Amino acid sequence: MKKLLTLLALAALSASAATAQVSPGRKKATAAAMQDGSPTNAPENAQRQAPMSAEQIADRFTQQLGLSAGQREQLIQLEQSRRTDAQARRAGSPPPADTSPAERRQTVQTRQQQYEAQLQGIFTPDQYARYAQLRQERQQQRGNRRMQTRH
């Protein structure tokens, strides 16, 4: 009888320890899901995927927009340059403390506009129009997901 009670206690302890071992990203997803009532194993609650490589981005655009080999190479170079610049900014000193959120937002918007101008130089007008349409659809989907998690 003592052995049975010991085994039951050991099983209960190991089960509780196993359920307590949740990764930090999963804890956030679980907490958010508990607030909005969605299931915790839903794909949208999974941890973020690793960012796509420059080649993967070029492959996706080649498939979606029908890029030529030359356009694909230009896009890879642009993406690699963009990543190098971002890494250099992260490695450098932080923005001055007196920089307002509006100024930081303006800096990001300026970088995005420069990127869009470079894409326009790579894509044909039809390809860029299709790219803009796809980008808008993604933004709407992201907005819809955000609204779902808030309610």
From TrEMBL:
Keywords linked to the UniProt accession: Signal
Superkingdom in the source lineage: Bacteria
Name of this chain's protein: DUF4890 domain-containing protein
Signal peptide range: 1-20
Region (Disordered): 16-151
Bias (Polar residues) ranges: 37-50
